[in-house]
Design a protein that fits this description.
mainly alpha; single chain; 263 residues
Length: 263
């Protein structure tokens, strides 16, 4: 029951946050799912919730997406996401680097944990850096941003923050920004799930959840839907600087725990 509450609350809050900031669901949900599943399975499971939630967001605000930006950013992102997802599958097959006792339990440090921990740490530092909100790139770099964002999206699911950095100067209104971001995210999610898919189809996720993996996925998805729905009602009223600082602090802790093999 604890797992359902933690995942559900996280998905609800993170999905609402994503509406305002352009990122947050994958960033927050991945480390939470990593508490209950192997990290590579957590990445794949997060991708499924992320995709379903973005499809739901398209029904709410997808009509505001800017087609030219979707083509310039989303297509390169989808292509590089497949490479990132392939790298994740390669890393997950590498042997354990170190095993040791930590607080009465056996901790394992693996290549995939170290890579994901490093990425989470980097995005946490970016969240906590005061000047991060002022960083943006010109419209000419949008395709490059798509390639970079998609690569990280496929590898760890951390695509939204980079996407926001590149799209923030694309001349979009707030609603166009949200709709365009959701459309690009769907393209990336479809690409990476196509690569992750074999593990999910063969039952890896269900086995990791001791028979309850799909139920946990359903709870996370339903709560993300609710968070997105509530978020659209508050889209014009809320800022998220304080929330981003809290998220950054939490992710630093998660990155250290994951990198040390504690989770």
């Amino acid at each position: 029951m604890t797992a359902y509450v933690v995942v559900g609350v996280t998905a609800f809050v993170a999905a609402g946050l994503t509406l305002f900031a352009g990122f947050g669901l994958g960033t927050l949900l991945l480390p939470v799912l990593a508490l209950f599943f192997p990290v590579e399975v957590a990445v794949a499971a997060t991708a499924v919730v992320h995709l379903l939630n973005n499809l739901f967001k398209l029904t709410l605000i997808g009509k505001d997406a800017k087609a030219r930006v979707v083509l310039a950013f989303g297509i390169p992102a989808a292509a590089s996401a497949m490479l990132g997802a392939w790298l994740l599958t390669m890393l997950s097959g590498l042997p354990v680097l170190l095993r040791y006792d930590l607080g009465g339990r056996q901790a394992e440090i693996t290549p995939v944990k170290l890579v994901i921990a490093a990425l989470i740490f980097g995005f946490a530092v970016a969240d906590l850096w005061p000047g991060a909100s002022r960083v943006a790139f010109g419209p000419r770099l949008i395709p490059v941003g798509g390639l970079i964002s998609g690569l990280f999206g496929g590898l760890s699911g951390h695509q939204g923050a980079l996407r926001s950095v590149f799209l923030i100067k694309a001349g979009l209104t707030k609603r166009q920004f949200v709709g365009t971001s959701a459309t690009c995210a769907v393209l990336v999610d479809v690409s990476r799930i196509a690569v992750y898919g074999a593990g999910l189809v063969t039952g890896t996720f269900a086995a990791a959840g001791e028979g309850g993996g799909y139920a946990l996925l359903a709870v996370g998805t339903a709560c993300a839907f609710a968070g997105s729905f509530v978020g659209t009602r508050l889209l014009e009223k809320v800022t998220v600087i304080t929330l981003q600082r809290a998220v950054g602090t939490m992710l630093l802790v998660v990155a250290i725990a994951l990198g040390s093999g504690w989770i």
